[in-house]
Design a protein that fits this description.
The chain is an alpha/beta fold and 498 residues long. The chain has 2 domains: 1-35 and 42-73; 106-160 and 213-276 and 295-490, Rossmann fold (3-Layer(aba) Sandwich). Helices cover 39% and strands 13% of the residues. It is built from 14 helices and 16 strands. Strands 8-3-9-13-14-16 form a 6-stranded mixed sheet, sandwiched between helices. The chain has a 3-stranded mixed sheet with strand order 2-1-15. The chain has a 3-stranded antiparallel sheet with strand order 10-11-12, with no helix packed on it. Strand 4 (145-146) and strand 5 form a beta hairpin. It is globular. The relative contact order is 0.11.
C-alpha cells in the first residue's frame, strides 16, 4: 500500500509539472501576439524563451507518455479532435498524385530546391538580383488548410525552401533564429555563398561570409488589408542592396462593377484579403446614408502595390481575378515581373479547387500538375523518375531559350525579353518559378481541355511567343512526356514523342 501511494504521488507530481509547463507555454505563446508582428529583432528574445519552453514540454511528455496517457482528459479534447480531422483532410488533399514504391506503398517526395533540381543557367553580368524577402498570403476560401496554412501556402512555402543536405555547412546559431510568429524559418543548412556582401542575409563565420540559405518569409492567412500592408512594408524596408521582394497571393477575386474603368489601379477590382467587415463595409455611411460608392476595404487593388515598385518586385497572383494586375506601371524603372494564374479552369476541374490551385501546383511540382490535368492518379516510382526526366529536359531547354532570346535581342533586335526577367533569372528560386511558369503555359496551351485564353496564365512583361512560349522544341518535350504517361490523347495533334 505504501508503494502504491508513493507511485500515485509521483504520478500526481508528473501531471502537475506537465500542466505547469503547458500553461506556461500557452502564456508565452499568447504573449507573442502582443509583439510587433513585423521586422526581425523585436520578438527574437521572447520567441527564444517560448521555443525553449515548448521544447521542454515536448521532451517532458515524451519521457512520461505512459503516465500522462493514463491520467490530458484534456479540457480541449473536442478542439483537438477537430484539429485531427483537419490534418487528415489536408494530408489527403496534398497527395494530388500518389507516387508508389515497388510494394505499392506511397512515397513522400520532397519538392524543395536542391542542387539536382535547380535549373541550369548561363549566367550573364545582368543577372544581379537575389531573392531576400517573401510574403506568402493565403486568402482563398473553401481551400483545404491546416491551422492557418492553406494548401497553396504550404506548396509555395516548400517551393521556396532549399533541401537540407549533410554536405552543407550547418547554420550559425539557433535553427529558428530567423523565425517569428508569422514567418517560416530556414532549415539548419547552408549552400555556397551568394548574394550581396554586407547585406543582412550574411552570417559571419570566422574569416568567411556565407549567405543565408533561404530567403526570409512571412506567412499571412486571410490578413486584413492593414496587416498585409504592414508586412509588405516590413519586407520592403528589410531589403538589402541587390535584394528582391516576392509577393505571392492566393485569393478570391473582388470584381468591379465599373462599366468604363479609367483607373486601372483601382477600378478593375482586386483580391479579397480577408472576410472581416467594418462600419464602412456595412452598407451605411457615418450619417446613415448609402455607401454604395465605397470600395471593398479588405481588397488588395493593383494600385496598392505601386509604392513597392521602388525596389525589385516579383509578384505571383493566383486568383480568378488575376489579370487585373497586368497593368501595374514601372514608375521607378526597377525590375518588375508579374506571373498571373488562369482566371478560369474547365468545369471538370472546378470541384477540385478545394485541393489547391492548379497554377500553384504547376509552380510547385510541374510533374504532379501534368498528371493532375490528365487524370493520372498514381505512378510507380521508376516511371515517375523517367517522366520527371522530361520535365528536367524542358526547363533546361527553356533556360537556354531565355538566354538566347536575350543574346538575339542584343545582337539582332529580335526575340525581345524584358530585362526584368534577365535580372531576376540569376536567382535560383526566381529562375525556377519563371521556367515552371513557361511549362505551365506550354502544357495548358497544348491540352485539349484548356481552350479559352482565360484558362491559360499570363505574365507581365509578356514573354516572347515564337522564340519561347510557342517554340517547337518545348512543345515537343511536353508531347513526349504525354506519350510517356500514356495520356497523349489529352493533347492536340502534333509530332509523336520518341
Amino acid at each position: 500500500m505504501v508503494k502504491m501511494a508513493a507511485t500515485e504521488e509521483q504520478d500526481r507530481k508528473i501531471v502537475l509539472e506537465f500542466c505547469h509547463l503547458l500553461e506556461k507555454s500557452k502564456q508565452l505563446f499568447n504573449g507573442l501576439r502582443d509583439l510587433p508582428q513585423y521586422g526581425h529583432r523585436q520578438w527574437q528574445a521572447y520567441f527564444g524563451r517560448t521555443f525553449d519552453v515548448y521544447t521542454k514540454l515536448w521532451k517532458f511528455q515524451q519521457q512520461h507518455r505512459l503516465v500522462l496517457d493514463s491520467k490530458y482528459e484534456p479540457e480541449d479534447q473536442l478542439e483537438w479532435s477537430l484539429v485531427l480531422e483537419e490534418i487528415k483532410g489536408f494530408i489527403k488533399a496534398e497527395s494530388a498524385v500518389a507516387v508508389l514504391h515497388a510494394d505499392t506503398n506511397p512515397i513522400v517526395l520532397s519538392h524543395r530546391l536542391s542542387p539536382l533540381t535547380t535549373p541550369p543557367c548561363e549566367r550573364t553580368p545582368h543577372m544581379t538580383l537575389s531573392l531576400q524577402e517573401i510574403l506568402i498570403v493565403g486568402s482563398a476560401c473553401e481551400q483545404a488548410k491546416f491551422s492557418e496554412l492553406t494548401m497553396d501556402m504550404f506548396r509555395m512555402l516548400q517551393t521556396l525552401e532549399r533541401e537540407p543536405t549533410d554536405a552543407m555547412h550547418p547554420m550559425i546559431g539557433h535553427p529558428m533564429a530567423h523565425g517569428g510568429p508569422h514567418d517560416a524559418s530556414p532549415a539548419a543548412s547552408r549552400m555556397p555563398p551568394y548574394g550581396v556582401p554586407g547585406s543582412k542575409g550574411y552570417v559571419e563565420n570566422g574569416d568567411r561570409r556565407t549567405m543565408r540559405d533561404n530567403p526570409h518569409k512571412y506567412l499571412l492567412y486571410k490578413p486584413s488589408l492593414s496587416q498585409l500592408m504592414v508586412f509588405l512594408s516590413s519586407g520592403f524596408k528589410e531589403l538589402p542592396p541587390g535584394g528582391a521582394l516576392l509577393l505571392y497571393m492566393s485569393a478570391d477575386g473582388c470584381f468591379s462593377t465599373t462599366k468604363h474603368p479609367q483607373d486601372y489601379g483601382y477600378e478593375l477590382g482586386g483580391l479579397a484579403t480577408s472576410v472581416k467587415r467594418d462600419a464602412v463595409d456595412s452598407g451605411l455611411s457615418v450619417r446613415g446614408k448609402s455607401s454604395a460608392g465605397y470600395k471593398e476595404p479588405h481588397c488588395l487593388y493593383p494600385g496598392d502595390l505601386y509604392p513597392y515598385t521602388r525596389r525589385p518586385l516579383f509578384i505571383i497572383i493566383d486568383s480568378d481575378n488575376s489579370f487585373v494586375f497586368q497593368h501595374i506601371p514601372r514608375y521607378f524603372g526597377q525590375p518588375l515581373v508579374i506571373l498571373m494564374s488562369p482566371q478560369d479552369v474547365p468545369a471538370n476541374y472546378q470541384d477540385l479547387q478545394h485541393h489547391g490551385s492548379l497554377f500553384t501546383l504547376f509552380l510547385h511540382s510541374p510533374m504532379t500538375a501534368m498528371c493532375y490535368i490528365c487524370n493520372v492518379g498514381d505512378v510507380p516510382i521508376h516511371h515517375w523518375e523517367r517522366c520527371q526526366s522530361y520535365v528536367d529536359r524542358f526547363v533546361t531547354e527553356a533556360s537556354r531559350l531565355v538566354t538566347r532570346c536575350r543574346m538575339d535581342e542584343i545582337e539582332q533586335g529580335i526575340g525581345y525579353i524584358d530585362s526584368s526577367y534577365v535580372q531576376f533569372f540569376g536567382d535560383d528560386f526566381l529562375r525556377t518559378l519563371i521556367l515552371r511558369f513557361v511549362f505551365c503555359d506550354v502544357a495548358l496551351r497544348l491540352h485539349r481541355g484548356f481552350r479559352g485564353r482565360h484558362q491559360r496564365p499570363r505574365c507581365e512583361p509578356p514573354l516572347p511567343g515564337p522564340e519561347l512560349l510557342e517554340h517547337p522544341s518545348l512543345a515537343h518535350i511536353v508531347l513526349q512526356l504525354a506519350t510517356a504517361l500514356d495520356v497523349r490523347g489529352h493533347f492536340v495533334e502534333g509530332p509523336e514523342g520518341d
